[in-house]
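Moderator note: this is an archived Q&A kept for reference. The question asked for a predicted structure of one protein chain; the sequence and the answer are reproduced below.
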Amino acid sequence: MRANDLSQFTFKFVYSGHYKVTYFTPNRGDYYSALITDMELIDNTKNAEWAKLSDIKHLRSVVIRLGTHYNKYGKRLDC
């Protein structure tokens, strides 16, 4: 993971102040998906001109902690 590298994330605008963020793990291919309402976190990563590594790591930890875990085939793992 490097600064300004958001290639492991997808961002989908849901509605005002809410983004669905998906984080794809680099080795296994599984992913985590979470609804993020912290616009400061979105502004520091997705909307930033240059996203800092610390902000990207913070976004990753929030998505993993709050999100739903799926394997690479889309089967939910945290049931």
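Archived answer notes: The helical segments are 39-45, 53-66.
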